[in-house]
């Protein structure tokens, strides 16, 4: 006797189907930047008509994802998603396209969120996103730092904290690449991205939109598991999630599994490779010069100006302890704070055999003869406008306390300054 056919799964409620359609369309527009279509004219019109503010000219890539155009595009994508959802819902009365697309969309979103979590995770694990502060960075007074600069320097100064955060992102990204581990991946990813989004809001880091979208995507990935999570919280039994049945034909089944495995392998391997390549492009290594350090100027033989705001004598000097390589050129940074309060940045070259130090500030170079005094001070003799002058610099150990204090298990008293 033939067994009765198992009943077909109940169709999701209308609100769930409509919500999925909206999320699918908005997510597709967001991850493809508007399906790769030109939105410039629509963005300019929306900004002028609705926001009452013209779009500023596009700047070269500077790392900001929170431009006015980015927010305008997000608003346009929301409106477009609402319109497409309305039309889709009116057209699909009896079909099952929504149900058939659910797990495919879930898989695509898993790989998208997983890839970027892996990329940002590896950039922190390899100490690339927030590098340790340079000596020229340490010369910046706390009150003069931007909120983002404070975050970057404080995280970069302590590699353990940065690596731990990167590992959390990378582990979440790796778990999202596989369907059976997507639940812990989405939970961990949502927690990590909630913290990252909070940091971006608190320190005005201009990737608020992108981090908010990654947080939203991790939360959307939890939707098929919500009944099980709710049952867990209420200490009730939970039925397993029903994943889609593999294709009946072995060839298509093997092709699907092989393609997913290759895609997961690429997503796992590419982020550390890309971050390593970026590090090579902007490489940095310890400077060979023994002049590197932060100095207080004890004496500047040049005459003082009548007003402090016109006084160009040096007050503080930071000679970077790193050599940077960019576009085939190598350089070390220098930073000078004048008595007037002016802050100058430039480069320097040290020639130990000739005992010379060449400092370039604002396109103007000065070559000094350098000597050490018995007290360990640095004497620099140079010329300005044909007139010789002398600088006496004393190392300032307190200026590097942030990076030289180190870690202590035992602290008899708090060291907080």
UniProtKB/TrEMBL annotation:
It comes from Deinococcus carri. Keywords: Membrane, Transmembrane, Transmembrane helix. This is DoxX family protein. The chain crosses the membrane at residues 20-39, 71-91, 103-122, 185-203, 209-230, 251-270. The keyword Membrane applies.
């Amino acid at each position: 006797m033939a067994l009765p056919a198992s009943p077909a799964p109940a169709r999701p409620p209308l609100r769930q189907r409509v919500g999925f359609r909206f999320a699918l369309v908005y997510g597709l527009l967001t991850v493809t930047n508007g399906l790769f279509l030109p939105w410039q004219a629509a963005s300019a019109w929306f900004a002028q008509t609705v926001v009452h503010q013209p779009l500023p000219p596009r700047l070269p890539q500077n790392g900001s994802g929170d431009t006015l155009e980015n927010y305008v595009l997000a608003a346009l994508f929301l409106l477009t998603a609402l319109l497409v959802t309305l039309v889709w819902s009116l057209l699909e009365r009896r079909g099952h396209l929504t149900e058939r697309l659910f797990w495919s969309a879930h898989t695509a979103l898993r790989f998208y969120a997983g890839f970027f979590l892996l990329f940002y995770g590896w950039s922190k694990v390899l100490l690339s996103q927030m590098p340790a502060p340079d000596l020229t960075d340490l010369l910046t007074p706390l009150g003069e730092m931007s909120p983002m600069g404070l975050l970057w320097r404080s995280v970069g100064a302590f590699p353990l904290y940065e690596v731990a955060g990167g590992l959390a992102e990378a582990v979440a990204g790796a778990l999202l690449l596989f369907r059976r581990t997507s639940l812990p991946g989405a939970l961990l990813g949502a927690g990590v991205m909630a913290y990252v989004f909070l940091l971006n809001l608190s320190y005005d880091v201009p990737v608020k939109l992108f981090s908010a979208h990654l947080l939203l995507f991790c939360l959307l990935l939890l939707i098929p598991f919500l009944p099980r999570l709710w049952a867990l919280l209420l200490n009730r039994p939970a039925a397993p999630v029903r994943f889609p049945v593999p294709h009946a034909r072995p060839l298509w089944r093997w092709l699907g599994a092989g393609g997913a495995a290759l895609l997961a392998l690429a997503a796992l391997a590419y982020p550390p490779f890309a971050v390593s390549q970026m590090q090579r492009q902007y490489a940095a290594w310890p400077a060979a010069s023994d002049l590197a350090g932060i100095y207080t100027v004890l004496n500047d033989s040049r005459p003082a100006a009548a007003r402090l705001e016109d006084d160009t004598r040096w007050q503080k000097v930071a000679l970077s302890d790193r050599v940077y390589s960019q576009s085939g050129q190598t350089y070390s940074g220098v930073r000078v704070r004048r008595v007037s309060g002016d802050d100058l940045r430039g480069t320097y070259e040290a020639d130990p055999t000739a005992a010379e130090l060449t400092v370039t500030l604002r396109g103007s170079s000065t070559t000094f003869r350098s000597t050490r005094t018995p007290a360990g001070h640095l004497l620099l003799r140079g010329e300005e406008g044909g007139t010789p002058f002398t600088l006496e610099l004393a190392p300032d150990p307190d200026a590097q306390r942030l990076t030289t204090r180190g870690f202590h298990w035992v602290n008899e008293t708090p060291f907080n300054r």
